TrEMBL record, chain A:
<keyword id="KW-0808">Transferase</keyword>
<protein>
    <submittedName>
        <fullName>Glycosyltransferase, catalytic subunit of cellulose synthase and poly-beta-1,6-N-acetylglucosamine synthase</fullName>
    </submittedName>
</protein>
<keyword id="KW-1133">Transmembrane helix</keyword>
<keyword id="KW-0472">Membrane</keyword>
<feature type="transmembrane region" description="Helical">
    <location>
        <begin position="372"/>
        <end position="392"/>
    </location>
</feature>
<dbReference type="GO" id="GO:0016757">
    <property type="term" value="F:glycosyltransferase activity"/>
</dbReference>
<keyword id="KW-0328">Glycosyltransferase</keyword>
<dbReference type="Pfam" id="PF13641">
    <property type="entry name" value="Glyco_tranf_2_3"/>
</dbReference>
<dbReference type="InterPro" id="IPR029044">
    <property type="entry name" value="Nucleotide-diphossugar_trans"/>
</dbReference>
Automatic annotation (TrEMBL), chain B:
<keyword id="KW-1003">Cell membrane</keyword>
<feature type="transmembrane region" description="Helical">
    <location>
        <begin position="247"/>
        <end position="271"/>
    </location>
</feature>
<feature type="transmembrane region" description="Helical">
    <location>
        <begin position="170"/>
        <end position="189"/>
    </location>
</feature>
<feature type="transmembrane region" description="Helical">
    <location>
        <begin position="283"/>
        <end position="302"/>
    </location>
</feature>
<dbReference type="GO" id="GO:0016763">
    <property type="term" value="F:pentosyltransferase activity"/>
</dbReference>
<keyword id="KW-0812">Transmembrane</keyword>
<feature type="transmembrane region" description="Helical">
    <location>
        <begin position="87"/>
        <end position="105"/>
    </location>
</feature>
<dbReference type="InterPro" id="IPR050297">
    <property type="entry name" value="LipidA_mod_glycosyltrf_83"/>
</dbReference>
<feature type="compositionally biased region" description="Low complexity">
    <location>
        <begin position="1"/>
        <end position="60"/>
    </location>
</feature>
Length: 418, 595
């Protein structure tokens, strides 16, 4: 009897968790009107704001030039590019100086002299040098659409937003089974879930294609140099202050990126994010959110990696327990509830992959759908592994610098093969 | 690919639809909201209430071309909203329906064997005896009588004796009420004009055929409620992903309530397709199919967990149950007089030929006008349901149960009402000359209205006598006097019911249980004596171990294939007879018994 009650309670908890996640994941497709509202408005032609675009680059000599020249093709008239390089990284600095020399009006080079380097420190170094009304952040390997700034300008003016988050999309879904799932994660996150967060007034921002009004950013004190997920942290702090965040996603306008080049790199990246989420959770800025619902959403979102790990392990155990322990059939049916939600999620992922292919004009083959399904459980194991690893590292105090130097973080992409 | 929807979207995530979405902008004007598909069979410029008119920012009108047939997308029509008038009309009609259905409900129609079966199984659920008091053998999914158990639960707590077929027919009234309201609401969502929605609800609730069948405790009535809910959700004007998902869930419950509802699912899919938006359609439709399939799979899962999915020695199984249902002896062709199917269809036509012939005609009209009538496209789902159900009836052989028509009733009512709306529109509006504000010739107007009124009067003249006769019978006749008398006799004359063994048909089984007979082996569903090994085991002496048979028409009909029941009938003498002729109920005492 006790076993049965326990199984029912666990099953129901799992069911509701999975159901909520699914509900939020499908936010953008709730109604045609919601879907239409997730897009950028069409710019009206008059650009009013000036932009300072920050491009932190560390050992990125191979791609930096291309990124900067692509940024310079922007259709917007009023912007500057600040490339941030380390004082111990002459190769990248040389590429940056060359770009600055070609277009001194637009491009400047800022040198970060911190002993131990990471992305938030680099961004903070550049913040005092920004002259624009709006600060935008890009990574050194980002492919940015020339029309993006005009759209963001329009978004700021028409909505009165303090922050505009554009879409980021991993594109190379065909590279491996995990990159397929990784791409789809981004798709659901930026295409759908983030819009829900913006609507609810609690949003963990992304690492790039994020634009903040300069004075707002300065008032907030810039980025947290000690946080492993400085982007998420900034979003949480700004939402807690009641700043208005607007998210827009246009498949033409997204910043395109690639997945980490190996499973290990993905695991490390995910560990860092998880640890960062945990740090943000422990910083408790989200407690200042005014609404109870917002705080619950914050709590749940920041803990998601760990809940995910937990559910990944417990769902199969729960079903096995129901099958092999002697429980009434009625109770056993309950244990299948979480499995049903998982099945629904799977189906929506398949449809999402199809939509992803259409949106980006990519050919999705049958084998990709197969990989998506078969890879699902393994990806779940990977996520669970990263979550456990993050907790373990955080417990042992192995955060920040040690980790950054191990993983390579955003800044050094040496472990990110292309 | 970024701007299939209007460009004037804000880039905020907001639940407000973007400006310029026709569906929203037109709701400003109540005039426009009243505008319905049925009154828009052809998109004439004179239709001031057309989708673009209220928008203000509407695209310029194209000059009218007489010959060209333009297709209006459903999405461009104004969103249907129920108003206070709708609520009042609906409640008023509902009161009438409830009075007609409730009056004389215990006495007409005949208590049916099936009603007894389902109610007894619901009673077993309430008693905590599992899904049936005899072995549950996967004849039908149990969801139907689980709902009956829930519906009758509180009344049965108040007075356990109420748990008999005649009394518990009252529990079907809320089911009929919800279904009737759903027909009205669905009609509005399918953009029928108000009067037509009203007519659909009246047809569904007041047709003598409906009145007779909806009074009975049939699983089909519950399944109809769920499928109507599914259609209503599928036609949700907000085109919400989770409404469509919910439609899938409701459809699954409907099928698990009565498996014949499977036939209607394609029609549901068509409705959902028609009423979803191209941009979100693939998520909505796949979501609905997924939810439906997953919930449907719970039934085989239940069987699997019981180790009763596959056939095997010594236990029942789901596969066996399905094989039985599919291999039931056919009742012949509907077109050959003398066959079972023919008789069943004749009995439907006897109660109400209007809803059947009219509904078929309505469906045919909608199919034919599909290309140019907005109504026909909006009603494609219900029309398809009628077509499928009709085609299945006309198959040359196969089993046709009498309650088969129940699942067709809401769709027949809807397409008949929609067909009437289409015809009315054609008479009143089609090829109306002149623009807004410029009156057409008075004579034409008079002629149009005269024709419309004449059609209306003719319709009433056809319907009224049939309905009057049918409903008069339903409201006054007492078809169950013999049953009641027989039950009373069994309670009065038998000294020790607890030690007496009786074969009865399912309809009065619960009555005898309440009189103190031992459920299952004391008072026995007559056919279980032969067909359920667990019961046969308790009758080692065959018919000699039985004391009485309550011989109803059903018992006499089925005894042919049941040796023990046949012996019991042949070796017994009537001690009391109620009624006469074919329908008489005899209480027969076994002659050579050892008691």
């Amino acid at each position: 009897m006790l076993t049965a009650a326990f199984i029912v309670v666990v099953s129901l908890a799992l069911f509701w968790m999975a159901a909520f996640t699914l509900w939020w994941q499908m936010h953008a497709w709730r109604t045609p009107e919601v879907l239409a509202a997730t897009r950028f408005g069409r710019p009206d032609g008059e650009a009013k704001l000036s932009f300072s675009l920050l491009v932190p680059a560390r050992h990125e000599q191979a791609v930096l030039e291309h990124t900067v020249s692509r940024l310079l093709r922007s259709a917007h008239g009023d912007y500057e590019i600040l490339v941030i390089v380390g004082h111990d990284d002459p190769e990248t600095a040389e590429v940056a100086e060359r770009a600055a020399a070609r277009d001194p009006e637009r491009v400047r080079v800022i040198t970060d002299t911190h002993e131990k380097k990471n992305k938030p420190k680099a961004l903070n170094t550049a913040l005092p040098h920004c002259r624009g009304d709006v600060v935008g952040v890009f990574d050194a390997e980002d492919q940015v659409h020339p029309e993006l700034l005009a759209h963001v300008d329009h978004a700021f003016r028409t909505t009165g937003a303090d922050v505009v988050q554009g879409g980021v999309q991993l594109i190379n879904f065909h590279s491996s089974w995990y990159s397929l799932r990784n791409c789809l994660e981004y798709f659901f996150w930026f295409r759908s879930r983030l819009h829900l967060h913006a609507q609810k007034g609690f949003i963990p921002l992304g690492g790039n294609t994020v634009f903040v009004r300069t004075e707002v950013l300065r008032q907030a004190g810039g980025w947290d140099p000690n946080c492993l997920a400085e982007d998420c942290d900034l979003g949480v702090r700004l939402s807690s202050e009641g700043r208005k965040v607007v998210v827009a996603y246009d498949s033409e306008m997204v910043t395109r990126e690639e997945t980490p080049g190996s499973l290990l790199a993905l695991l490390k990246q995910r560990t860092r994010w998880n640890q960062g989420f945990l740090q943000v959770y422990r910083k408790r800025d989200w407690r200042r959110l005014p609404g109870f619902g917002q705080r619950m959403l914050a709590r749940y979102t920041l803990m998601t990696p760990f809940l995910q790990a937990f559910t990944g392990v417990i769902i199969p155990v729960n079903v096995l327990a129901a099958l092999f322990l002697d429980v009434p059939v009625g109770v056993a049916v309950f244990t299948f509830l979480p499995l049903l939600t998982a099945a629904v999620t799977f189906v929506f992922e398949i449809v999402g992959l199809h939509d992803f292919g259409i949106q980006y004009g990519l050919k999705v083959r049958f084998v990709h759908y197969l990989k998506l399904i078969v890879g699902g459980p393994f990806y779940q194991v990977l996520l669970a592994g990263a979550a456990v690893r993050a907790v373990w590292r955080e417990q042992r105090g192995r955060n920040e610098w040690e980790l950054t130097s191990h993983v390579g973080a955003h800044l050094s992409r040496e472990d990110v093969l292309r | 690919m970024t701007s299939t929807l209007p460009a004037a979207t804000t880039n905020r995530t907001t639940t407000r639809p973007p400006a310029g979405t026709p569906a929203e902008t037109t709701t400003d004007s109540t005039e426009t909201t009243q505008m319905t598909a049925a009154t828009a069979t052809a998109p004439a410029p004179a239709q001031e209430t057309g989708p673009a008119a209220g928008a203000g920012t509407a695209a310029p009108r194209r000059p009218r071309r007489r010959a060209a047939v333009e297709r209006i997308s459903l999405a461009l029509l104004p969103r249907p909203r129920a108003t206070r008038t709708d609520v009042l009309l609906c409640l008023g009609l509902l009161t009438v329906i409830m009075v007609v259905q409730a009056w004389n409900i215990t006495r007409f129609p005949n208590l049916s064997d099936d009603e007894g079966t389902y109610l007894a199984q619901a009673w077993a659920v309430q008693q905590g005896d599992g899904l049936a008091h005899y072995t549950y053998w996967y004849d039908h999914p149990p969801v139907g009588w689980l709902q009956i158990a829930l519906l009758t639960w509180i009344p049965s707590l108040i007075s356990p004796d109420w748990m008999t077929v005649a009394t518990m027919r009252y529990a079907m009234l809320p089911v009929g009420a919800v279904s009737a309201v759903l027909v009205y609401a669905l009609a509005l969502r399918l953009r029928l004009p108000r009067w037509s929605a009203f007519a659909a609800m009246a047809l569904f609730g007041l047709s003598p055929l409906s009145v007779v069948l909806q009074r009975e405790i049939f699983l089909d009535n519950l399944a109809v409620l769920w499928i109507l809910l599914a259609f209503w959700l599928a036609a949700s004007p907000s085109r919400h992903l989770w409404h469509h998902f919910g439609a899938g869930l409701a459809a699954a419950v409907s099928v698990l309530t009565k498996e014949t509802m499977l036939l209607v699912l394609p029609a549901l899919l068509v409705t959902m397709w028609r009423h979803s938006h191209p941009e979100t359609r693939k998520f909505a439709v796949t979501g609905a199919i997924t939810s439906c399939v997953l919930v449907g799979l719970l039934y085989p899962l239940f069987a699997l967990l019981n180790s009763e999915l596959f056939p095997g020695a010594g236990h029942v199984s789901l596969i066996d149950g399905i094989v039985y249902q599919l291999s039931r002896p056919g009742s012949g062709s509907l077109f050959e007089p003398g066959t079972g199917s023919h008789a069943v269809v004749q009995s439907w036509l006897y109660y109400d030929s209007v809803i059947i012939y009219g509904g078929l005609a309505g469906a045919a009209l909608l199919v034919v006008t599909h290309r140019w009538s907005v109504t026909a496209r909006a009603l494609a789902g219900p029309a398809l349901a009628v077509v499928i159900l009709a085609v299945v009836v006309t198959r040359p052989s196969g089993y046709l149960p009498a309650m088969y028509v129940i699942q067709a009733l809401p769709f027949l009512a809807l397409v008949l009402a929609a067909g009437a709306a289409s015809v009315t529109h054609a008479v009143l509006r089609r090829r109306r000359p002149g623009r807004e504000g410029i009156p057409q010739r008075r004579a034409v107007t008079v002629a149009r209205w005269t024709a419309a009124v004449a059609l209306g009067v003719a319709a009433v003249a056809v319907v009224a006598p049939t309905w009057y006769q049918g409903n008069k019978t339903a409201l006054t006749e007492d078809a169950n006097a013999s049953y009641r008398a027989a039950v009373a006799w069994m309670g009065r004359e038998v000294a020790e019911p607890a030690d007496t063994r009786v074969l009865v048909d399912d309809a009065v089984w619960l009555d005898l249980v309440h009189q103190g007979y031992e459920p299952g082996t004391g008072v026995i569903w007559f056919y279980k004596a032969d067909l359920d090994p667990a019961v046969t085991e308790t009758l080692p002496g065959g018919y000699r171990d039985i004391d009485y048979v309550v011989s109803s028409p059903t018992v006499r009909r089925d005894a042919v294939d049941l040796p023990i029941v046949k012996d019991a009938l042949e070796n017994s003498t009537p001690v009391a007879v109620f009624g006469d002729g074919e329908d008489r109920i005899e209480i027969r005492r076994i002659a050579g018994g050892d008691r």
